[in-house]
Amino acid sequence: MNKDRMEGGVRHLRGRVKTAAGALRGQPGRQVEGAYDQAAGAAQYAYGRARETAHDLRREGEHLYEEGRDRARSLAEEARSRGEAFADEAVRHGRHVRSRAEHHGREIARRADENRTTTLALVAAVAFGLGWLMRSSDRS
Fold first, then answer.
1. Which residues contact residue 43 at a Cβ distance below 8 angstroms, ignoring those fewer than 6 apart?
2. Which residues of 83-94 are buried (b: 16+ CB within 10 A; e: fewer)?
3. How far is the C-alpha of 46 from the C-alpha of 39, rounded, in Å?
4. Over the stretch 44-84, which tens digit does the pLDDT of each residue have?
5. Where do the domains of the chain lie?
6. Who has the most CB within 10 Å: 34, 55, 62, 130?
7. Residue 27 CB: number of other CB atoms within 10 A?
8. Helix axis angle, 116-139 to 28-114, nearest 10°
9. Other Cβ atoms closer than 10 A to 139
10. At 140, is the pLDDT very low, low, confident or very high (cuts 50, 70, 90)?
């Protein structure tokens, strides 16, 4: 409870006492003065509550901001970590694929070297077929 709420409550109470005392003694001036103190006390009390509410909202807002900032940092770190893991996995997979391609390429080259006649015949047949296909499309 802040100072304004405390003083406003006391002033409001004092105003009620003045109003009651003015009514008992038949003093309208004192009643008006009491009503004024009551209203002023209620206003000061309401102001104090509004200040506390604003302070609480500000504190909650700061807390939410910090929580959001921490969560964003956490998500960014997680994204960076996952990205690095994904990149590492992609590099490993790429190296594996390259290794397999080199192995298969060497195997094909070895077989072609062992079977030179068959390889030469295949190359010649493919070249002839491509030439024939290209020649047919030129006549159309």
1. 8
2. eeeeeeeeeeee
3. 10
4. 999 999 999 999 999 999 999 999 999 999 999 999 999 99
5. 3-139
6. 34
7. 14
8. 110
9. 5
10. low
